[in-house]
Amino acid sequence: MNKAARYDVAIVGGGMVGAVAAVALSQAGFDVALVEAKAPPAFDAGAEFDLRQSAIAPGPRRLLDNLGLWQTIAAERICAFTGMKVWDAGHHAELFLENTAVGLPELGHIVENGLVVATAWQALDQVDVFCPALLADLTVEPDCARLTLDDDSELTARLVVGAEGANSAVRDAAGIKTTGWSYHQRCTVGAVTPERHHRHIAWQRFTETGPVAFLPLADGRCSLAWHADDALAAELAALDDAAFCARLSAASEHVLGEIVSIDTRAAFPLKLMHAERYVDPRVALIGDAAHVLHPMAGQGVNLGLLDVAELVHALEAGRAAQADAGALAYLKRYQRARMADNMAMLAATDGLKRLYGSANPMLRELRAWAITGATALAPVRRLMLGQAVGLSGSQARLLR
């Protein structure tokens, strides 16, 4: 085999989490290969907003900043938000979480997924990129992982990282099982124009068929995330734009006035999935390859970026101890650092989905009590915000 085809780390999947991982590991001094099926387009600030938006929390933003990516991202059309308002349909109970409770200038930034991907790809100058390429076969040997791509080319790495999403070929090839279920819901997304400005607040109303959320965009519009049971989602998809906007105005209780218009909309299915382990000899999973949660809390991408920081931290510790990048003892450090936190967030979002998806009158009262209690108790609000902003006290270099 060609010597140039040997790497410390081969990452399969060049989306948000995989591309950032490639940048992070290459900057940490590892020889990195990235395998991706399709190169992303360059970011076009004149195009319509990406249908997929993420609320990047301050913790993961530190990672992007430390990698030199945030300056480029922040120069584009991102939007800071300073508060989150949550309320329950049918009750007066509401919860407002503000940045001042955690002493930060903002709670996060709404960023187009395509912008993060394009920015990370621009920083892959020290990474060997195999694209377009798919993983055809993976063989794990005592001293390396051997990857065969769909064009019959081969490469070897001390460690292969699965970062290609919920349908991870690396995870399947490694025989790592998952648990999970469908929520029988779909999330409808699109950029909406409300009658009133969003005031840099993220708005979310819980209904029995799923939450309706508005995330602030830089031009005064909002990114919609309407989680709805499959039957309702199909009904909404069949509406023309005027009828859809009328339904959305009512579903959001006109919190921002009438919804004037919506651009291109799309819907995607929602599910929970968790890998039974994140690592095996010479294999590690990050991002959606390891965990998929209900998006109501907007934490999916943040969890994946925190995975990246902890994986780099573990591999650097291994290298300092003269272990190679695939040493299982150090991969398990990564797993210990991330699995408990990820499972806690999966459990929390799953519990909220079930709590707010029930018409049981006792649970409705419990929801109202929970919101009222969180509003009244400042320590509870601070705890919730601490989790939401991703500042958990990690010792990972890239999060400091």
Task: Report on the architecture of this protein.
This is 2-octaprenyl-3-methyl-6-methoxy-1,4-benzoquinol hydroxylase. Its cofactor is FAD. GO terms for molecular function: FAD binding; monooxygenase activity; oxidoreductase activity, acting on paired donors, with incorporation or reduction of molecular oxygen. Component of the Ubi complex metabolon, which regroups five ubiquinone biosynthesis proteins (UbiE, UbiF, UbiG, UbiH and UbiI) and two accessory factors (UbiK and the lipid-binding protein UbiJ). This protein is α+β, with helices and mostly antiparallel strands and 400 residues long. The chain has a domain at 3-80 and 108-180 and 272-361: 3-Layer(bba) Sandwich (FAD/NAD(P)-binding domain). 34% of the residues lie in helices and 29% in strands. The strands form three sheets. Strands 5, 6, 12, 13, 14, 15, 16, 17 and 20 form a nine-stranded mixed β-sheet that branches. Strands 1, 2, 8, 9, 10, 11, 18 and 19 form an eight-stranded mixed β-sheet that branches. A three-stranded antiparallel β-sheet has the order 3-7-4. The two termini are 40 Å apart. The model is unreliable at 373-384 (pLDDT under 50).
